[in-house]
């Protein structure tokens, strides 16, 4: 498959690959998977006292589009409030990366990862 | 199964591969599932020896080589039959494909069930461990072998679970089992993808 330039760029130079401390109360960990292709994506966000996401890391095992989509969202969520991050839609991700129809599910996965990370962060805040 | 009119002799014939009157090869009957095609019981556990034996028997009766001197219709039908027989063999041989096929037979509409987080965390851990193996390092083979053994064990355990669940699914209240089976089929797919990734890395390590 011929990948779009932006996908290739994120694939070859992925931003923010890594891990944040899962135990940190200010870190939300999102874990999502696409059973149809066996992809698995982990997205972590760290939220500061002002409620702004000041760091984001990801680890994705899957196709180039899945890696690019998660790399892109780590860039996009940084500096945003939680609500702003939640407003990111898979359509924007797919458009930015010019994903073909068969790869749209990768952008859906990335959107779900943001929601999953926020849900984890919120449940931690409530619990602590 | 309803009787059909033979395209060749116009006589009425029962279901089957060949016309009972003129012995002409009949069109493929897609109502016959892959298990029945091979004369096997419907279920997740398949006798591989019997499967391959039945496959060879079917090939002996249907293969296009035997129809080379026949008319265009017979040649086409023979090809359609062996194409389906090959697809059936492939489907019934591989556990993952077999599970997917059985789910469809049982009427499962491929609904999406998000995998549970605990399982995904396990998959992530496995993937990270694989990611940390340097194919060029001296201990690469040993580490890959350990990861393979673990992954294969998980896959076999999943298959054993699926076998039990499919028995229940084809019994009373079977429909209730389908979402659980679908979930475990998804798990098996993760294990298989992991093993494929491992194959790829092993190839690199051996270069």
- What is the 3D form of chain B? elongated
Strand order of the largest sheet of chain B: 1-2
The helicity of chain B comes to: 55-70%
Rg of chain A, alpha carbons: 14 Å
Q: How much of the sequence of chain A is in beta strands? A: 15-25%
Task: Provide an overview of this structure.
The complex is a heterodimer of chains A (128) and B (207). Chain A has 128 residues and is of the alpha+beta class. In chain A, 46% of the residues lie in helices and 20% in strands. Chain A contains five helices and three strands. Chain A has helices at 5-12, 64-77, 82-86, 90-97, 104-127; strands spanning 27-34, 39-47, 53-61. A three-stranded antiparallel sheet of chain A has the order 1-2-3. The radius of gyration of chain A is 14 Å and the shape is globular. The model of chain A has no long low-confidence stretch (mean pLDDT 93). Chain B has 207 residues and is mainly alpha-helical. Chain B has two domains: 4-93, Orthogonal Bundle (Helix Hairpins); 117-206. Chain B is 61% helix and 2% strand. Chain B contains seven helices and two strands; from the N terminus they run ββααααααα. Chain B starts with a strand and ends with a helix. The chains are: A alpha+beta (128), B mainly alpha (207). The interface between A and B is medium-sized, with 12 and 19 residues.
